[in-house]
Design a protein that fits this description.
With about 400 residues, the protein is an alpha/beta fold. The protein has 2 domains: about 260 residues, Aspartate Aminotransferase, domain 2, CATH 3.40.640.10; about 120 residues, Alpha-Beta Complex (Aspartate Aminotransferase, domain 1). It is built from 15 helices and 12 strands. A 7-stranded mixed β-sheet has the order 1-9-8-5-4-2-3, sandwiched between helices. Strand 4, helix 6 and strand 5 form a beta-alpha-beta unit. Helix 3 runs parallel beside helix 4 and helix 5 packs parallel to helix 6. The longest helix has 19 residues. The chain is globular and about 70 Å long. The two termini are about 20 Å apart.
């Protein structure tokens, strides 16, 4: 069988050996120095001022929206647009925090929201924020998206969990909005087993994210930011300050294991991306020669960092045919992310069709699309096996 992923880590054996040694010699495994080093290293890689590490990508999404509410930039009842082709933990926090989710259709040829999609949605709804999912390594026309959001005072945030390392017009995906989230779950571009990150250049948001991550405490703020916060609330005693809770928060802290693995796996990230891209381009060359498939457009992307091998068939019947081929070949496949999120049970339960939308392209991707795994361990025989299923 050819699974969605083969190993937990890049350079699996060496990573596990290093992790075992680290655990044996460590006197502390709760969040500390390793997490801070990883945050700094990731900021340098991504080109952002601040990176805040969390115990998962889903937690990063939740904390980001909570932090924006804590700062008063989002309020109960505000409408937040989201990519209709996305993952559950992008939409659930919108509902959980008393905001109103508004689905935005995605383009078939890029799997992503375009500026045209956003403009069309804003003609019907007054959006306070847009949470875009950069799906499977692809991105939309961010220059136009950025411009429209700025002109209309719309907060732009990105879920970059599947597009770490993609470069569009000289800028890494995840650097176009106020903030972006990342996931380091198994089978992503780099794995810390569980783990996630929020990146931002906004100092106030970064500080609030650190408060939100750790129960509402200020313990992980700089001394300068701690003093500002304590002075504002009239807290003069260090003893009292240790147990002061300044705003709404959760315990979303990572462990030192997360930090250690992040430091190590980040060193291998670029070679991982290059191998994923090589794999993708080899399979894409076959897809483009088969009229049963809709080719994806990444001509506007300077460097594509593919998360998986996506296939969009021209009809549901063709999809069934190719799924059978993959199954007979022993190749594990899955739906295109989570499909059209507005059709998921939780969404129908809590939102229903109160804010229905025309999501024709997302529906098409959902009913006609699927993907298989893409990772550095794929060998020539694995790629040939995939070839045999799509020619």
């Amino acid at each position: 069988m050819l699974p969605l992923m083969k190993n937990t880590f890049i350079n699996e054996f060496d990573t596990k050996a290093a992790l075992a040694e680290f655990i044996l010699r460590s006197s502390k495994l709760s969040m500390g120095e390793q997490c801070e080093i990883f945050e700094n290293n990731f900021s340098q890689y991504q080109g952002r001022r601040s990176s805040i590490l969390f115990n998962s990508g889903g937690s990063a999404n939740l904390a980001l929206l909570q932090a924006l509410k804590n700062l008063g930039r989002l309020e109960n009842g505000d409408k937040v647009g989201f990519s209709a082709l996305t993952w559950s933990t992008n939409v659930m926090p919108i509902i959980q925090l008393g905001l109103v989710p508004i689905p935005i259709d995605c383009c078939t040829e890029t799997l992503n929201v375009s500026s045209t999609n956003i403009v069309s949605t804003c003609a019907k709804h007054s959006l306070k924020a847009v949470f875009i999912t950069n799906a499977l390594g692809f991105v939309g026309d961010y220059v136009n998206i950025q411009k429209f959001c700025t002109q209309n005072n719309i907060i732009l945030i990105e879920d970059n969990c599947e597009s770490l390392g993609t470069i569009y017009l000289g800028t890494k995906s995840g650097n176009f909005g106020l903030a972006s989230t990342f996931s380091f779950f198994v089978a992503h571009h780099m794995s810390t087993i569980e783990g996630g990150m929020v990146c931002t250049d906004d100092n106030d948001l970064a500080s609030m994210l650190r408060i939100t991550r750790a129960n509402g405490w200020d313990r992980n703020l700089s001394p300068f930011d701690q003093k500002i916060l304590r002075d504002r609330h009239g807290i003069t005693s260090e003893f009292d300050a240790k147990y002061a809770f300044y705003d709404l928060g959760y315990n979303l802290r990572p462990t030192e294991i997360t930090g250690f693995l992040g430091i190590l796996q980040l060193k291998y990230l670029e070679s991982n991306i290059q191998k994923r891209l090589s794999n993708f381009l080899e399979i894409e060359s076959v897809i483009t020669s088969n009229s049963d498939f809709v080719p994806l457009n990444h001509s506007h992307i300077e460097r594509l960092s593919p998360f998986a091998m996506p296939f969009i068939c021209r009809s549901p019947e063709l999809k069934t045919n190719y799924l059978n081929r993959f199954a007979k070949a022993g190749i594990e496949v899955r739906p295109m992310i989570a499909g059209n999120l507005t059709k998921q049970p939780f969404y129908l339960k809590y939102i229903g069709d109160s804010y229905s939308a025309e999501l024709d392209s997302t529906d098409f991707i959902d009913t006609c699309g699927f993907y298989c795994g893409n990772y550095p361990e794929l060998e020539a025989r694995d790629l040939n096996l995939i070839h045999s299923c799509i020619i």
